[in-house]
UniProtKB/TrEMBL annotation:
CDD domains hit by this protein: NUDIX_RppH (cd04665)
Gene3D superfamilies in UniProt: Nucleoside Triphosphate Pyrophosphohydrolase
Pfam families recorded: NUDIX
Protein name (record): NUDIX domain-containing protein
Organism listed in the record: Lysinibacillus telephonicus
Gene Ontology MF terms: hydrolase activity
Nudix hydrolase domain residues: 1-145
Family: Belongs to the Nudix hydrolase family.
Keywords, in A-Z order: Hydrolase
Length: 155
């Protein structure tokens, strides 16, 4: 387990296994690396971040991951794999499940909802971007990027 304090001052436990969970995951984040670049969404309020969001009633974590990536980026993904989960010990603790996925198809981004589109960034561009979401700047995100790069070589 990797433990750190996030940029909001909350303790976070990051694990790279499938459980058992201290808290049931109700949020998802998806890492998609395609042609050497990371798929990111541009959130109107928070800035650049990996796609993800809340699980809707009746939806599995995997269904939520696929839906959120498409809604936020217009990218269809396949080969969804469990990667990690982390628990944020906020006033009301919550858990996020982290997946990796592969690009199947990219549709034109024509709508605007929570995001204003997507961008593809190299690891260096991502680490040095001037408009990163607060959670993209914490030690847990850096650790997950290290781990996903390692695991991609294994797959």
């Amino acid at each position: 387990m990797f433990t750190f304090i996030d940029n909001n001052g909350c303790k976070v436990n990051l694990r790279f296994d499938e459980g058992p969970f201290d808290i049931e995951p109700k949020h998802v984040i998806v890492f998609v690396l395609y042609q050497g670049k990371w798929l990111c969404t541009i959130n109107k309020k928070r800035g650049v971040e990996f796609p993800g969001g809340k699980v809707e009633p009746g939806e599995t974590l995997q269904q939520a991951a696929i839906r959120e990536v498409y809604e936020e980026t217009a990218v269809h993904i396949t080969d969804l794999k469990w990667f990690a989960y982390y628990v944020v010990h906020d006033k009301v603790p919550f858990c996020k499940a982290v997946f990796t996925g592969k690009v199947e198809k990219v549709d034109p981004f024509i709508g605007e909802y929570e995001t204003i589109g997507m961008t593809w960034l190299s690891t260096e561009e991502l680490m040095n971007h001037s408009n990163l979401s607060f959670f993209m700047k914490d030690d847990g995100m850096k650790k997950m990027l290290q781990e996903v790069k390692y695991h991609e070589r294994q797959w």
